[in-house]
Specification:
By secondary structure, the protein is of the alpha+beta class. The chain has two helices and six strands. The protein has two domains: 46 residues, no CATH class; 42 residues, no CATH class. The longest helix is centred in the first third of the chain and has 9 residues.
């Protein structure tokens, strides 16, 4: 809890991530309780955070698994400066750019996405 308070209150971070699935070993999950009741959040089970530049990067959550990706369902993507030595550019990524679809999806009268003829 002391480390969480230091990082969020003293270092002024809004969000943190860590590789283990859970770092809160207290019986009442006091660290997670403190985070949620102080408008902070965390990401658990995140790999390779040590490779993300300390400054100048944006970490986003929510992408579907990219071709060749590994791990769980949530995708944590670091958008980093062009001179970053890790990762790939959009043009180098497998499956990018997305291929054009012969029958793009459009909503039908019920709001359901269906392929166009």
């Amino acid at each position: 809890l002391d480390a969480l308070k230091f990082l969020h209150l003293e270092r002024k971070i809004l969000f943190h991530g860590h590789e283990p699935l859970d770092t809160d070993t207290t019986p009442n999950l006091e660290g997670e309780h403190w985070l949620l009741h102080n408008d902070f959040t965390q990401a658990e089970g995140v790999a390779n955070l040590d490779k993300v530049p300390e400054a100048g990067s944006l970490v986003t959550i929510g992408f579907a698994k990219p071709l060749g990706g590994s791990g769980g369902y949530a995708r944590y993507i670091a958008i980093a400066p062009a001179d970053w030595s890790e990762g790939v550019s959009v043009t180098e990524a497998p499956g990018a750019p997305l291929s054009r679809q012969t029958a793009p999806l459009k909503r039908d009268e019920n709001g359901v996405f269906r392929p166009t003829p």
